[in-house]
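A quick aside before the break. I want you to see a complete sequence-to-structure record at least once, exactly as it would be stored in a machine-readable document. Don't worry about memorizing anything.
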Amino acid sequence: MPPTNPTSLQRQLLDWADKSANERHYRTAQEQQIATALANPRAIALHVAAWMLGTWWHGYGQARVLRGESPGWDDVRVGQALLRCSLLLRASRQDHRGRSLPAFTPVHGAQCILLGLALDDPYAEDLHELYAAQPDPFFQPTDALGLFVRALLHLRAGERPVVTPRLGPYFELLTAWGSDPAVFVRKLVVVLDHHLTQSSGRGDFADPPLLLYPAEALAIVNVRTLLGLPTPKIEHPLLFTNLGQMRPVGPWPRDPLVGRIEQMLARR
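That is the input. The structure line, written in tokens, reads:
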């Protein structure tokens, strides 16, 4: 699919966050669903509602940041906590006979982990361990992003990643991981161009949390910084908006609703 202009993506995200119908659907209705699910331990829709509410706070918070409102990052981080909880809830599900149900999809896991790495989520290690341990059959032929995120987690842990052509557009980026930083960053720009081709329809970056946010670039920079590897300045339009220039400040916010969901997870 053809690439989308970042200016159009910014307008699209702002329009999405400003629509009252989206707030009713993604926020109000899901808060009601979560309240019901927390009151009824047998409810099965909690993970779905948490994902949708997390999507709302991510998109709404990013729209605030685009308008220059730095407190919007706290909304984004609350949204990230909800996405993380959603995946851990999915992974902990069992059927009526006590058998584990299928976990989350590779793409949902990859999206959430990239966002968490970009935002320095301090509570994501359980999710990282779970995803990094997924075997090759977990990933379908179209799951290049998922394979890339698994490889990134292996690198972050100081382990050797599995680098195969199945990585698609991320293959050359990983093969250049330890090369000249200038060469590496050129490969990263190609990956960001791929982001723009995947920001519409059913693409990997078409949902509001990832539409305009250069999560893969920021996640990579954070992992390389952790490992003591330099990353030259990245010259790409996705890095030129407030979402690429501004950073969250202060401690990770603690949200009461997220806290209740985390308590439920701890009991499973």
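Two observations worth writing down. Residues 6-267 form one domain. The radius of gyration is 18 Å. We'll return to this after the break.
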